[in-house]
Every structure is written in structure tokens, then in C-alpha cells.
Amino acid sequence: MMLKEEQEYHILKKEISFHTSRSGGKGGQNVNKVETKVEIIFDVNSSLILTAAQKTIILKKYPDLVDGTFIKLTANKHRTQLENKQDAQRKLILLLQKLLKPVKKRFATKPSKSSKEKKLTNKKLRGEKKTLRKKFNDF
After folding, report:
1. Considering its fold, how many domains does the chain have in total?
2. CA–CA distance, 99 with 93 (Å, rounded to integer)
3. What DSSP state is assigned to residue 14?
4. Which of 44, 45, 83, 116 is paired with 66 by a 20 to 30 Å CA distance?
5. Under a CB-based contact definition with an 8 Å cutoff, are residues 99 and 87 in contact?
6. Is residue 127 part of a domain?
7. Residue 44 to residue 55: CA distance in whole angstroms
8. pLDDT confidence of residue 126
9. Among 6-15, 39-48, 60-69, which stretch is predicted with the lowest mean pLDDT?
10. Domain containing 88 — which CATH number?
11. Taking residues 59-72, what's their average pLDDT?
12. Which residue range forms the structural domain that includes residue 78?
């Protein structure tokens, strides 16, 4: 799934569907007449370009992004339906790339010598402050 954006869309084209509706915002009378808002729907389970492992990753790890087995994205930033359609396609490709990017494994590191020394000096300073605040009962 790491191809160029155009190639990925060409493959995805068969697996996505679009729904249009009227959107608010800029456009004047055009807003009331033309359906410029675009919703793109991608069915994860019936996808041919995703492997079974990739499908499970998307469905299990990111259930908040998936509605059942569908990924739904909307675009209504632009004034024309065509631009919003292209924007929605771009969003879907970027989202799929982000979701399927392997997560780097974290390795535990030890604190450096200087950070340990800094921590100790700060502790000593704090302790000295507190001893200075104590009332002296020697008098």
C-alpha cells in the first residue's frame, strides 16, 4: 500500500463510492442549488488491495475510524464537487497510509550520568530549602 498517490487511487477507484449533498459555507446562491459536499465510503472487508492482516489492523486498532466495516470521510472545503471529490480521495489515501505504517518499537534507555547528577543536585537544593524553613528550637 506504499505506491504513489495516483497509482493508489487508480487501484482504489473500483472499491470506493461517493455520496454528495448540499454543504454550507462559501458559494452564495450556489450553496442552495448544487451538491458540493462529498462523502467517500470505503469498505475495508471487501477490499481487494488490502491483505487480511492489514484489514484486521484497521478494524481492531482503529475502531473509532471505522463505522462497521466502512471508512467514511467527508470533504466540503472547496466550492466545486470535483475539487471536493479529489480532496476526499487524497484524504482516504493519506489515512490508509497512516494507518498501515508500521509502528516503531520503543527501546528502554537508561538515564545518563549527567542527568543523574543533575537530579541529585536538585534534590539536595530542595532539601536545603526545607531545612532553612524549619523553626529553630535551640534558643
Report:
1. 1
2. 10
3. G
4. 83
5. no
6. no
7. 6
8. 95
9. 6-15
10. 3.30.160.20
11. 83
12. 5-100
